[in-house]
Design goal:
Blueprint: E1 6-9, H1 16-23, H2 26-29, H3 40-51, E2 57-62, E3 65-74, E4 82-89, H4 98-113, E5 119-124, H5 129-138, E6 141-152, E7 155-165
Helix pairs in contact: 1-3, 4-5
The structure holds coenzyme A.
Length: about 170
């Protein structure tokens, strides 16, 4: 893998075809809060109504083609020192270190973009070993196990909680 071909950038309307390839895959959306996107119209609408207006969402790109996303949502008011991070990648690209590289890039940017941000959090289901491994490889610390914490795809699921502080080192 030539990691110099990986970039993160804002979504564009013209990403709809590429987004449809990975967002229509149930293996990708199983651990995500949103459902698969199955048509080009839905993909365009999703980019216009969700991806572009999102406060901080980037497309992870390979040779500038969208293969996934990474997003950060900051809490509001007195909790704005904290933000939640989420990501996914098309299953054709799993296991090549791409999300690890993209997450390292994103961390450097978000702590600059949000000057009052101190803590990034991620919630991961126990069965999702790939995602746990990504967080560990980047330098996130596992802090605990939250029983019956998240509601996803009609089920209440257990979650591990991970964090990365502005003072932590990217590995
Ligand atoms: C989880 C996900 C983001 C990982 O992306 P990726 O680009 O494949 O991740 P990387 O290649 O950077 O690293 C994956 C690591 O997990 C490991 N891994 C993957 N599946 C695993 C499993 N079932 N058990 C143990 N380790 C596993 C890989 O071996 C690799 O570790 P290594 O480098 O030490 O060998 C990707 O699989 C995905 O998009 N899944 C669906 C959406 C999702 O789960 N999003 C996160 C929600 S919290």
């Amino acid at each position: 893998m030539d990691y110099s071909r990986i970039t993160i950038r804002p979504f564009k309307i013209s990403d709809a075809d590429d987004l449809l390839k990975w967002a229509s895959d149930e293996k990708v959306t199983y651990y995500l809060r949103w459902n698969t996107i199955t048509t080009i119209e839905e993909a365009s609408k999703y980019i216009q109504e969700v991806d572009i207006p999102h406060p901080w969402r980037r497309s992870i790109c390979f040779d500038d083609r969208s293969i996934s996303y990474i997003s950060v949502r900051q809490e509001s008011g007195s909790e704005c020192h904290r933000a939640h991070i989420g990501y996914a990648i098309g299953s054709d690209y799993w296991g090549q270190g791409i999300v690890t590289v993209a997450l390292k890039m994103a961390i450097q940017i978000v702590f600059k973009d949000f000057s009052n941000l101190v803590r990034l959090e991620a919630m991961v289901e126990p069965e999702n070993r790939g995602s746990q491994r990504v967080l560990e490889k980047v330098g996130f610390k596992q802090e605990g196990f939250l029983r019956k914490y998240g509601f996803n795809k009609g089920e209440i699921r257990d979650m591990f909680i991970y964090s990365f502080l502005s003072t932590d080192q990217v590995l």
